[in-house]
Amino acid sequence: MKAKLEILALVLGFIGLFGTITVTALPTWKVSAFIGANLIVMEELWEGLWMTCYRQMNLRMQCKVYDSLLILPAELQAARGLMCVSIALAVISLVVTGFGIKRTNLCGDNTRNKNITLAIGGSLYLISFLTTLIPISWVGHSIIRQFYNAATHDAQKRELGQALYIGWATSAVLLVTGIILLVRYDKRRSDEEQVYNGIYLMEGKNVPNQDTIYQPKTESNMFKQEYV
């Protein structure tokens, strides 16, 4: 059961990595809000981290990469960098976790090194969780704030896109993965301390007491016989 938890964490790590890559690549961070005068669905607009996509009725979708990073709002600029960091952390976490799993021989038989490696992998997953959650929540807050801003025109209002919902689910997976690994590290460290304490006690029992004086046995004079 203990080894299965580590394998589960490894599988969740793969899912978290795939999720972060998907969220970063999807253009559906912001989508058109069909309200007011924009009620008739004639044109749909998607805005992502790297491109915008337009889809008109009876026409295929056309996407265009942003001409400059400076034209993006602050939250999308920050989301670009943080999501790339999140992908890098997820990759490193996955590799480090693979070294720390008990069933692998990548770290040899050194239990302490494996435990430390597992703790590092769990910590990196938690950092990846933060670098994913922060940009997703920031962009979501910006969309909601502009949506309820009376000064914003209806055609400029946006709704939460699919990428944001996938991002929140991915951040939850990364959080669960990090917690599982840190819990397993704490359990394995406790088992390691118990093993070392047992070895220390066994060695202590085998050491002779220094307070006792060893006196070699001598033969009694009664049993000595003299031969002439």
UniProtKB/TrEMBL annotation:
Cellular component GO terms held in the UniProt record: bicellular tight junction; plasma membrane
Superkingdom of the source species: Eukaryota
Transmembrane segments: 7-29, 78-101, 122-144, 164-183
Keyword Transmembrane helix: yes
Keyword Transmembrane helix: yes
Gene3D superfamilies: 1.20.140.150
Places the protein is found: Cell junction, Tight junction; Cell membrane
Keyword terms, alphabetized: Cell junction, Cell membrane, Membrane, Tight junction, Transmembrane, Transmembrane helix
Membrane topology: Multi-pass membrane protein
Position of the signal peptide: none
MF term (GO), any: structural molecule activity
Record-stated family: Belongs to the claudin family.
Known role: Claudins function as major constituents of the tight junction complexes that regulate the permeability of epithelia.
Name of the protein in question: Claudin
